[in-house]
Automatic annotation (TrEMBL):
Keyword NADP included in the entry's annotation: no
Domain Disease resistance R13L4/SHOC-2-like LRR positions: 12-171
SUPFAM superfamilies found in the cross-reference section: L domain-like (SSF52058)
Annotated Gene3D superfamilies: Ribonuclease Inhibitor
Pfam families hit by this protein: LRR_14 (PF23598)
Keyword Repeat: yes
UniProt keyword annotations, A-Z: Repeat
Top-level lineage group: Eukaryota
UniProt-listed InterPro entries: LRR_dom_sf, LRR_R13L4/SHOC2-like
Name assigned to this protein: Disease resistance R13L4/SHOC-2-like LRR domain-containing protein
Length: 198
């Protein structure tokens, strides 16, 4: 748990493969620079719980973590936006959980669908009316879980989007395309809120 800054010598943690960080307080000085020097990091969980500050650390330092395949982000800070170039500096992500905690009012799909290796996606607490996947989006996605997005009314997937999808969990009140109705639910996706897929 971090309240202000977290700096360390990455040489002391050179073999670290999994890291969980919880940021509390309203500091805007915390960065991911030290974490970005953990070259073997495979799984990273970052949670910001304290309200009151709009600040969220830039994710770009994680581009140096070439082995990073699993990422969980829980955001309780207002006005934070996903970087549009996420697919460029995190191209190896296979598992991603985003918990917006009601503070990310924009559909994340246009950014996330460009992640070339993403196979499992979980979206939680987004205040959006519609999630839209374009043709060709999410080329490797196999499992999608949309949870506690109470304002969501529709998951729109254009023809050619999510071509490998084989597991889907969404609330009954969210409309989905007819061709996705036969895709089975995967209750084990709930376990990934606090566990890793890979």
């Amino acid at each position: 748990m971090v309240e202000d800054q977290m700096e360390f010598d990455p040489m002391n943690l050179i073999n670290l493969r999994e890291l969980w960080v919880v940021i509390v307080g309203q500091s805007n000085r915390f960065t991911l620079d030290s974490i970005g020097r953990l070259r073997l990091l495979q799984s990273f969980d970052l949670r910001l719980y304290q309200q009151g500050s709009p600040w969220f650390p830039p994710l770009r330092p994680l581009s140096h973590c070439q082995h990073l395949i699993q990422l969980r982000l829980s955001n309780n800070r207002q006005q934070w936006k996903l970087p549009t170039e996420l697919h460029e500096f995190l191209p190896n992500l296979k598992f991603l959980l985003l918990a917006a905690e009601g503070f990310m009012p924009e559909d994340p799909m246009p950014i996330l669908e460009k992640l070339p290796q993403l196979t499992i996606l979980q979206l939680m607490y987004f205040n959006v009316n519609k999630f839209v996947c374009t043709a060709g989006g999410f080329p490797q996605l196999q499992f999608l879980h949309i949870h506690m997005c109470c304002d969501a009314e529709e998951l729109q997937v254009e023809e050619g989007g999510m071509p490998l999808l084989k597991g889907l969990m969404v609330a009954d009140y969210i409309r989905i395309p007819e061709r996705l109705r036969s895709i089975p639910a995967c209750p084990w996706l709930h376990d990934l809120m606090d566990a890793w897929a890979y």
